[in-house]
Amino acid sequence: MSAAPYEELNLGGAVGDDPAAVLANRERAARALGLDPAQVVWMNQVHGRDVAVVDGPWGDVSEIPAVDAVVTTRRGLPLAVLTADCTPVLLADPVAGIAAAAHAGRPGLVAGVVPAVVEAMIGLGAEPSRIIARTGPAVCGRCYEVPSRMRAEVAESVPASWSETSWGTPAVDVTAGVHAQLEALGVQDRRASAVCTLESGDHFSYRRDRTTGRLAGYVWLD
Hints:
Strand order of the largest sheet: 1-2-5-4-6-9
């Protein structure tokens, strides 16, 4: 329902798009996944490491907390994470009945949002060896150009994030960093999307377009 520059299916509510269009898009996306739009748990993402444990959707938009990860033990409750270059992290321990979604941009990677969300899952009874991890479309390490000092600072915290662009300049690979953190935590079942948001015309990219929409990753337990 969104008009340019947000294109058609913008799911982000804080990017300047018409709120009615965003709501219609969210309803359409949820129903396409067989979900009740009113049950989807969204976050007020701030590039931090705070985690919220939830058992239902927020009552009102004003009640959505500033967190970058949500965890639930309630089956059938969908969790959503918005991105437009950052790495969406979807996690589940089906045996323990725990699901989680996290927003891992460069600041969140360094802050430790991934270890924080896994620790929250473990605190609820998850076992790292049982956790299934999927990361969605994100800007790749061959496209995410940064100043050399920034690359060094990020790599000091997460060495696997060190990268170089395809044109030979300093870069950060957030998805590689996320998977390295997951591996160090004992999460073995991991897969990453091959899509680079900056290179793909079918995905929103803040670095490419600046004023643009947001895509969403959803996770829930049947």
